[in-house]
Amino acid sequence: MKLQYFGHSTFLITVADKKILFDPFITPNELAKDIDIKQIEADYILVTHGHEDHVADVKAIAKNTGAVVVSNFEVVSWFQEKGLENVHPMNHGGSKTFDFGNVKYVNAIHSSTLPDGTPGGNPGGFVVSTEEGTFYFAGDTALTYDMKLIGEEFKLDFAIMPIGDNFTMGIKDACKAADFVGTNKFIGMHYDTFPYIQIDEQDVKKSAQEAGKELIMLNIGEIITL
Q1: Per its UniProt entry, which superkingdom is the organism in (predicted)?
Q2: Which of 9, 52, 99, 181 has the CA that lies 20 to 30 A from 127?
Q3: DSSP structural state of residue 30
Q4: Which residues contact 122 (CB under 8 A, 6 or more apart)?
């Protein structure tokens, strides 16, 4: 599968000829100023929770592409009120098979309020199982023992997890989370966008190396194949 990074927690993953966009926050992100959202193609938009830095470009990209917006019931209902019709609601522990593979909505420990103050339900993450591989997109979360259940149920090829600390896990907890979910390879997200989550990249890489983990940190716009 092919993976492209658009900054913060925004990734576009191409699998089975389908394009799956996660947590689009691009136009307000100064670090991603060179990314034109009108050029982004998406068949699905998966949203972990309702915070502005995860939903800012959902409506615009969904309108432009016709992508199906997948999230928890509260977030999906909010977007329906904003005029989006192509949506699919989920909730914790539930799974759904789409034309690219299976998606399970799993627990995350965080908060979730939509940009206008509407409650966004409980935040979550996604485990995506496809013929090309299986991965865990953690969303914004603390380290939680529930992650062990992911490791018991799935054989992951990699994970995408926050490492910016302050609002989410930092690198040490992310390395432990990788142990819990059963992978030594993870891609870092949710760092450097704001002053609160600026990190020392060399220290973070050193911590991952000492923990025996393969940490991948991408440049904005970079594309890799996994």
Answers
A1: Bacteria
A2: 52
A3: G
A4: 49, 72, 92, 108, 112
Average pLDDT, the chain: 98
Q: Is 97 helix (H, G, I), strand (E, B) or coil?
A: strand
Strands 101-107 and 95-98: antiparallel
Q: What DSSP assignment string belongs to 34-63?
A: T--GGG---SEEE-----HHHHTTHHHHHH
80 φ/ψ angles, rounded to the nearest 5 degrees = -60, -40
Sorted by sequence, the CB contacts under 8 Å of residue 192 that are 6+ apart come out as: 31, 164, 198, 199
Cα Rg of the chain (Å, integer): 16
Task: With H, G, I as helix, E, B as strand and everything else as coil, classify residue 159.
Answer: strand
pLDDT, average across residues 103-111:
98
**N- to C-terminal Cα distance for the chain?**
6
Task: Say if residues 108 and 49 touch (Cβ distance below 8 Å).
Answer: yes
CATH architecture assigned to 2-225: 4-Layer Sandwich (3.60)
Rounded to two decimals, what is the model's pTM? Answer: 0.98
Q: Closest Cα to residue 140, out of 73, 49, 215, 217?
A: 49
pLDDT in tens, 3-24: 999 999 999 999 989 999 999 9
Cα separation, 85 vs 68, in Å, equals 8
d(Cα 103, Cα 89) in Å, to the nearest integer? 12
φ, ψ of residue 139 to 5 degrees: the values are: 70, -165
